[in-house]
Structure formats: structure tokens, C-alpha cells
Amino acid sequence: MLILTARDVRQVLDGAEHQVVEAVSRAYRLHAAGRTAVPHSLFLRFPEEARNRIIALPAYLGNTGDPGEREPVAGIKWISSFPGNLASGLERASAAVVLNSMRTGHPEVLLEGSVISARRTAAGAALAAATLAPREPQTGVTLVGCGVINFEVLTFLRALLPDLAEVTLFDLDPARARAFAERCAARLPELKTEVAERIEDALAAHRLVSLATTASTPHLDPTPCRPGTLLLHLSLRDLTPETILSSVNIVDDDDHVCREATSLHLAEQQAGHRGFIAGSIGAVLTSGRRHRDPEALTVFSPFGLGVLDLAVADLVHHRAQEQGLGTRVPDFLAPGA
After folding, report:
1. Separation between Cα atoms, residue 214 and residue 236, nearest integer Å
2. Could you tell me if 162 and 64 lie in one domain?
3. Average pLDDT rounded to a whole number, residues 290-298
4. What are the two backbone dihedrals, phi and then psi, of residue 214, each rounded to the nearest 5 degrees?
5. Are residues 209 and 143 part of one domain?
6. Which of 35, 64, 284, 296 lies at 20 to 30 Å from 24 by C-alpha?
7. How far is CA 175 from the centre of its chain?
8. Are 308 and 120 in contact (CB under 8 A)?
């Protein structure tokens, strides 16, 4: 068993935004081609604390069989979300990823998963922003929710959108927004950063908006958004069913995203169908068709498929081996296993 810590994972992934995006894009395209297996995520919830949860995402990522392609990979991500951690100075999410041998089924690699999870989420968001791009350059972005995910989103957007020059921030906790702005100034000094006091002003600032909150029920009125805005709906529960039903909706997988009381699940229950979903990001990448309406609101709602975690974890595994990173535990498995 090879064990890769958060330090190992960061060492491999820092500065590798384009490689991560390519891995995520490949996983989306393989999923659209039916070359994946993605069972429904299993949500472990607790009667005493409804906001806390731990999610299991098993998956299999195949290939096209073309020469030189990566071997198929199978595994699972086990990720917890405990929002109360933030008040204690801890990260909301923690995770582990296990990769299994496709020859024996044995677990071969154990990776710290929260970094992988955050960066595959951000890579998918940036990929959607670049793929569903308007005709004019995208020069600004609004980030609603000033946590780990949106900082990663900003990092990946900077890699994929060369014209990005401005960022507007909003968080219900003004101190978090100010701290986020200070981090932006230190890490991305070329960006003009502004903290909005009202969410209405933040939504109106740019035609690209990333939502990464801990909301469990719809709360956001997108009326202030400009025509042609793309909402990266990463937290999945910010928008009302009425907003979803009146928007152009792109998803990662309609069967996965219409579950667990997401905004799209609520919209399906209200409408009685899924006809409001225009298509999947994998299909858009494969076909080249774009769904960015210059007048309508476009919403990208990714449930977060386990194959994306496998794609990035497999990238980390191979690059870590090349760099000699990680700790090997030769006697991890039972004798004779």
C-alpha cells in the first residue's frame, strides 16, 4: 500500500491546474460515452446533527482502449462535511481516497482526499466556465462563499481564463470575506479584489458567479444577475426550483444531481419531469455544442461524480511515483491476500 499525505498531494498538484483540468475533462467525456460506473453516492447522516454528513462515492473510470491511454481505475472517496468545524478553526471537509487494483481488487493507494476533492470541483467549475464561455472575454467573477472551494475555483479560473482581472466577494461572515480578500492580494496580486456588503451587488457585478456555500435549502434570488450570467452552482442547494425551471441547466449527470434535495431535485418534484435540463457537460465537451444563452441565466450544477476524484487521484498516484513521494506499507494487507 502506498500512502500519500496532503503534503504529497499538494506537492504534485500545485501548479498543475491544466493537467487536472484535462484529467477532469477526460473523465467527463468518458462518462458521456458510457465508459464509467458511478453508483449513487451513499449519504451517512446523523439524527443528532442534521448538517453533518459523510458521503461514500464509489466509482470506476474506464478508457477508450486507444494505444497509450491510462489504464482503467476503480476506487472510492469517503468525504465528511462538518460545517461546525469552521467555528473551531478546522476545515469543513476531510476525505480519503482509496484506489484498487483492477487485476486483483486489492487496495493499492490511500490518498488524502480533501485536496483532491476541492481541486477536481474547482477544475470542473473552471472547465464549465471556459466551455460555456460568452463571445466577449470574461474579465470578472463573483464568488459567493469565501471558503476553500471558491479559492480553488479562483485559482483554476485564473489558469483557464487569461482575461480574468477582477473578483468580487460575498460571504455572510464579513470577516471571512475580508480574510479571503487578503489571501487573494497575497497569492493573486494581479487581480482587483472587492468585497461586496450586499449579495445583490455581488450578483450584479459580473456575468460569471460561483456559488460555494453550506446552504441546505434554497435562499438565493438571482434577479440582480445580468442577462447571460453563468452560475456555477457548486453547492447545489442555493437556488429555488422556480429559478432552475426558468434557466438553461447544464449538469454532470441528471440522475445523480436530481437527488438529496438539491435545487434540481426540488425542481423535478415540482415539474414532474427533467425536461428543464438542457444537457450534460460531458455531452457539451464531446459535441462542441454550447448552451450559453446571451439573455438567459445558465446554471451549471455538478453533483460531483466519483470518477472525477478517481481521475485526479490517478494523476496524483502516477506523478507521485515519478517523484518518489509517499510512504509504502508492504504488510498492510493480511498475509496471503
Report:
1. 9
2. no
3. 85
4. -105, 20
5. yes
6. 296
7. 24
8. yes
CATH number for position 288: 3.40.50.720
Number of separate domains in the chain: 2
- Looking at the fold, whether 76 and 43 belong to one and the same domain comes out as yes
Residue 96, strand partner residues: 78, 112
Q: What is the pLDDT of residue 164?
A: 97
Residue 292 has pLDDT above 80, yes or no: no
Q: Has this prediction a pTM greater than 0.85?
A: yes
Same domain, yes or no, for 235 and 151? yes
Q: Which of 201, 151, 147 is nearest to 171 (CA)?
A: 147
pLDDT (tens digit, 9 = 90+) per residue, 71-89?
999 999 999 999 888 888 8
Q: What is the CATH number of the domain that holds 315?
A: 3.30.1780.10
Query: What whole-number distance in Å separates Cα of residue 237 and Cα of residue 116?
Result: 22
Instruction: Print the domain residue range for 45.
Output: 2-116+306-328
Query: Does residue 318 register a pLDDT over 60?
Result: yes
**Separation CA 326–CA 2 (nearest Å):** 6
Which whole-number Å values give the CA distances from 283 to 72, 119, 252, in the listed order?
A: 21, 22, 9
Closest CA to 206 of 225, 190, 180: 225
Enter the C-alpha cell of residue 311. 481521475
Residue 80's beta-bridge partner residues? 54, 94
